[in-house]
What does this fold into?
Amino acid sequence: MSYMEILTLGNECLKQKALPVEKIGPEYIKIAEDLLNALYEGEGIGLAGPQVGLRERIFAIHVQGDSPRIFINPSIIETSQETEKFEEGCLSIPGTYTNVERPRAVKVQAWNEKGKPFTIEAEGLVARVILHEYDHLEGILFIDRISEQKRNRLLEKYEKIASKSKESKKKP
It folds into this structure.
């Protein structure tokens, strides 16, 4: 069980740009493990540091059929010109989903939790998750990438879900 609590919409940490990791030490093995555990507990496929209150440029992804991956200080080297719309959700805005247009492929350079650099070229769902989590490091939520009208509808839906959740937690 992870000690990391997933922050939800309204928490200021979600809108702030994350800071670069200065030195990747042995503690990042534990941070990566905790981040992945929080991801699994939330039943998601990606989770960024800011979503659990870490102000650092780190995120975890685990897409079915692929190995879990940790990205520290990622840099997007290239994205495809070809884009596609696909439904996205976010562990920080539970119960809300909508189509978001993103590049179909991405090339990223980063470091893993052991401080080893790597470059990955991804497409489809893996590329989408990388781009979604990278946005979190920039203080951008997926709802910032849709029209204002669509965003307002999603926020109304989220408020209803959030208030029902608060009510159910109050009941003995």
The mean pLDDT is 94. The chain has one domain: 12-170. The first helix runs from residue 27 to 41. Strands lie at 46-48, 58-61, 69-79, 83-88, 98-103, 105-111, 117-123.
